[in-house]
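Board work, copied verbatim: RNA polymerase sigma factor
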Amino acid sequence: MATRNTPPRWDRAMQQRLARGEAAALGELYDRFAALVHGLAHRVLDDQSAADRVTREVFTHVWEHPDAYDPRQGPMRTWLAGLTHRLAVRRLRATETAALERGGPGTAEDLERRVRRASVAARADYIVQSMPAPLRSALERACFQRRDYRQTAADLGITEEETRRRLRLGLQLLSTAHDVAAPGAPEDPPGYGGAA
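↓ predict structure ↓
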């Protein structure tokens, strides 16, 4: 069993392959995580072409700075999500600030509220996608299908106590969505200046 400081084998091997400059490794990484990266970027930016640009930026950053990811700090999936979040928020803030400077509607406070809402929504999406399937299925039934815990237990074929436990854990995870800095997110990725 892996300890907290032992990175998953795939993540460690992928980081080493990227550090050696293996183009096939970047392709494999892209195939595995492009949908996640693009989905998170789109959730923050609400713009297809902007999400496409952020997706390219994320994978370009990984290619140019393969040592920026430290497998001992957590899974590559989490690190990529944090990097995506940071770059997407940075792009949203820059785009909205430019619109304000051109005389667009709103204030700087409105901008920060929009950025915060987008950040929390993207983080909540990531948390739901990343949680174990048993927690996710219980939450989906209870929250999205509006089933109570008894109906959810019957749907899943588990005890009511287990259903309550899964819902409690899932909601505890979701409550961290307001902690906008995603785990594993670099403070300032190499090659990117300024704060997000």
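The mean pLDDT is 84.
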